[in-house]
Amino acid sequence: MSSAVVDKQQPTHAAMDEDDEVLITADQLTSSLAATVSAAQTAAAETKSDKPDFAPLSAKDLQSKRNELRRIRVPPHRFSPLKVDWLKIYSPIVEYLKLQIRMNPKSRMIEIRTCADTEDVGAIQKAADFVRAYCLGFTAEDSLALLRMEDLFLETFEVKDVKTLNGDHLSRAIGRIAGKDGKTKFTIENTTKTRIVLADSKIHILGTYQNIKIARDAVSNLILGSPPGKVYSNLRTVASRMKERF
After folding, report:
1. The K Homology domain covers which part of the protein (predicted)?
2. Secondary structure (DSSP) of 55-93
3. Mean pLDDT score of the chain, rounded to an integer?
4. What is the tens place of the pLDDT at every residue in 94-115?
């Protein structure tokens, strides 16, 4: 009986020895993880080495390949002011934006071109917006704000876009926008911190996006027939809200 018991216990010890062989120690686990990480890093390095690595291009590198050109048509009624204010337009574009500019009298256009000294890629677009604002009727000082500030925009719409008016009705709508001696237009400009140009039936507004929206709503109300007193009260409310916000 005793020998039988001993024989039955011997397989049990052999199974325990096999279990001990299956167990993984902490050192073995750490070494296996380190090998896996190193293999992954090596594979990533090989994959990265296969991809081309291009250095970023500077503005001068872009300009050296191709010069950009912008042409802005000058209206006939802006030729005389352009001759007077040419130095105010020429100086910031050449000295500040490092661009080339000239007036082409045959085509009646102002041509702006980049050169090797141009540092900013978007400088030519700023200069084009600046000249375009001046050609629409804004003063050189007001148009210069487009070069100094990034969040200024220019919006143009017609009286007919708000309401279809003809003849005397159109003239009265334009008169309501301007007001006596320009009082209404100046009030809208000072309240909304914008600049407005009335060119026949077209209206040009220069300012930030939010201020343009407020000025456009005020002008639209005047076109639709609202009395100036009501528009003033609405602007006063908007101005008080803007002061509280800031």
Report:
1. 151-224
2. PPPPHHHHHHH---EEEEEPPGGGHHHHHHSHHHHHHII
3. 81
4. 998 889 999 988 889 999 998 8
Handedness of CA 142, 196, 193, 160 (dihedral sign): negative
Q: Which two tokens stand for residue 68?
A: 């950009």
pLDDT above 90 for 51: no
Cα–Cα–Cα angle for 52, 57, 62, rounded to 5 degrees: 125
How far is Cα of residue 21 from the mean position of the Cα atoms in its chain? 68
At 176, list the tokens: 């309501």
Residue 206 clears pLDDT 80, i.e. is over it? yes
Q: What angle do CA 81, 82, 87 make, to 5 degrees?
A: 115
**How many angstroms separate the CA atoms of 191 and 160, rounded?**
25
pTM greater than the 0.90 cutoff = no
What type of residue sits at position 195?
A: R
Sorted by where each starts, the structural domains of the chain and their CATH numbers stand as 59-148 (3.30.1370.10), 153-245 (3.30.1370.10)
